[in-house]
Amino acid sequence: MPIFRLSLMASAGLAFSSAALAEEDACPHRGDLDAIYCDADKDMVADPPTDPKKFRDPKTLIFAFTPVEDPTVYEKLFQPFMGHLSQCVGRKTVFFAVQSNSAEIEAMRSGRLHIAAFSTGPTNFAVNIAGAVPFAIR
Fold this sequence. Notes:
By secondary structure, this protein is of the alpha/beta class. The protein has five helices and five strands.
């Protein structure tokens, strides 16, 4: 099986509500981010909200791997990772089989996806459209 370069992303939605992030008039800088996000510190990713009431704390974390020919194979391969993550954060983690990059990004934008592995092509869309915040690159 060929090895693909992956950018593992943690969704900004894991920590906070993406829809409630930016108050459009109060955001001094967005860069290429969608209008619902703010990048006041100019690090090219969405900033967390300044209002603690806008943070999210999901009981179950949802994980997706970039769309592939048979997502069920990867669901089994990622079970050890998801088990370890669950143990580290003290909450259940489940696999979400996505059918396309667009579906993966939309799920993250809407808060239905918290952690995802994106292939290199859609990474910029995940950051700009879904508020994803990269945390590792392989």
